[in-house]
Amino acid sequence: MEDLIKALNILWPYLSEYNSKWPTHCEHDILYVCGIDMDKISLEEVHELSKLGFLPGSDEDPEICIYNEEGEYDGSVDFENISQKDWDDIKDNLTNCFRSYKYGSC
After folding, report:
1. Where are the domains of the chain?
2. pTM for this structure?
């Protein structure tokens, strides 16, 4: 519970005014915190949120998947260790939310 509260406190300042009243959504055992301004959240906060069980974007965003040279799926982005350059390259193409498989089960 402590990690969930920490994560929500990190995300709180980045919620759009529209989403601040009802920012969460749960679907298929994934908890989403929606309406996050990805341009304002820092790389350090992305690392911390990843450690706490929250990943940026939707699980359907193509930017979070890594493909090898043959076009085969080769894993997903390691947000706990992502570089500033890689974060800057993908953040504008992510859905404006953070998701958690850790806290999403009903």
Report:
1. 2-100
2. 0.85
